[in-house]
Amino acid sequence: MVSLETLTPFQDKPIEPRQFQLISPRSFSVARYICHFEWIFGLEYDAFPFSSELNIMSVSKDIRQYLERGLLIFVPTADVLERAYEMLIYNNHRPRDPDERKRFEEFGTGPWEYTILPGRWDTKTKKSESLPPLFNRSSDGAFTPFFFDDRDFDTLPRFTSTVHPLIVVLLLRMNVPDNHPSQTIQEKLIAPLKKVFRKWPQWEHNRFLPMPNTKFKREYNAGGKIVCRCIYCSKNTPSTSTASSSELEDTCTDDEEVEKEGREEEYKELSRIANERISVWRGCLEGVASNHDDVKHDDILDRYAQECTDAADKVMLRQEEERAKREALAAEMQGDFSLKKKSRLS
After folding, report:
1. Which of 14, 74, 241, 318 is most buried by its number of CB atoms within 10 A?
2. Residue 17 pLDDT > 60
3. How far apart, in whole angstroms, are the C-alpha atoms of residue 7 and residue 134?
4. In whole angstroms, what is the distance from residue 120 CA to residue 287 CA?
5. Of 189, 102, 109, nearest to 151 (Cα)?
C-alpha cells in the first residue's frame, strides 16, 4: 500500500516519520487566508485548530518538503469538495451574522479519503518533472520504484487520515496545483477543487465585524479583540470593533477608488511594455529587410509579423474588455446594494 509514510526519494535510506503541520501559524502567507477560512467554513474568530490532529499528520521525513511546496499533493474526494463548495457559498452570502453560518463541526468527522498525486506538471512533456524519482517501501521493507506519470484515476494511490478536508483545501489554496494532463483525473479531482477556489472570498473588511450599513442581530463575542486590516480599520485602530456603518461605507468607497486607480496604472504599464516590445520586434524586422532585399517582400515573414503584432494587440484589447466588464458588474452590484438599502430605510 502506498501512503505519505511509505514514499521516499531514497532507495537505500531508512524512512524516518515526521509530523507535518499542514497550516503553520509561523507561515507568513497564512495570514492572507486564515480569516477568510474561519468565516466561510464556520469557525469562530481566531479559532483555527493549528495544534489539532485535524491539522497534523505523520509523513516520511524526506517528502515533507515536497508537500510544503505543493509539488506533491493529496486531494479529498469529489463529493467532499462539493460539500466544501456548498458551505463556502452559504457562509459567504452577505450580509450574515457569525451565528447564522454553517458550522465547521457540521461537516462531519473522519477518517477521510485522499488521493496522492503531483501538484506540478510540465506542459510540454506532461510529466511530473518537479518531483524526484520516488520509491515505495512495502510491508516487508523492500523499496520499489513508484511512478505517477501515465497513471489513470483508478490506479492513483489513496489513503485515509483524520486531517480535515477543509484544512487540506486551504493548504491547496495556498499552493494551487496545475491542471492534470489526464482528462479523467482533471474532471474528478482538480476541477472540483478549483471550483471551490473560484469562489474563494476576496473581501478585505473582517466579516466578524458588522458590514457597512448593517449590524448583527446579536452582539458577537469572540473572547478577545477582533483585528481588521481594511483601510478604515487600519486608520482607526481604537475603533476597530465599533466602527460606524457610514464610516465603513465611505472607506469601502475610497478603497474601490484606490483599487480602480491601481488597475488603470497597471493597464497603462502593461500597454507601455507591450508597445515597447512590439516596436523592438518591428525594428528587428525592418533591419533584416534593409540588409536583405529578397526578404523585403517575403509574404510569409510579413504575415508572421502581422500575426505577432495582432496577437499582442488582441491581448491588450482583451484585458480592456475584461476590465470594463468587471467595472460594469461592480456598478450593477453597487446599484442593487443601494436599492436594497433604500428599501430598508423606507
Report:
1. 74
2. yes
3. 6
4. 41
5. 189
Asked whether 51 and 24 are in contact (CB, 8 A), the reply is no
176: confidence class by pLDDT, cuts 50, 70, 90: very high
Q: Out of 62-76, 143-157, 274-288, which region has the weakest mean confidence (pLDDT)? A: 274-288
| Cβ neighbours of residue 158 closer than 8 Å, sequence gap 6 or more | 113, 114, 115, 116
The residue among 128 and 324 whose pLDDT is bigger is 128
Closest residue by Cα to residue 67 from 127, 7, 146: 7
List of long-range contacts for 336-344, beta carbons under 8 Å, 24+ apart? 341/213
Radius of gyration of the chain (CA): 26
Report how far apart the first and last C-alpha atoms of the chain are (Å, whole number).
66
- Considering Cα of 238, then 242, then 243, then 244, what sign does the dihedral take? negative
For CA atoms 296, 301, 302, 305, give the dihedral sign: negative
pLDDT surpasses 80 at 155: yes
Establish how many alpha carbons lie within 13 A of residue 328's alpha carbon, considering only the half-sphere containing its beta carbon: 6
Q: Identity (one letter) of the amino acid at 288?
A: V
Closest-CA residue to 13 (of 141, 117, 140):
141
Sketch the domain layout of the chain as residue ranges: 7-198, 243-345
Joined together, the cell numbers standing for residue 238 give 481604537
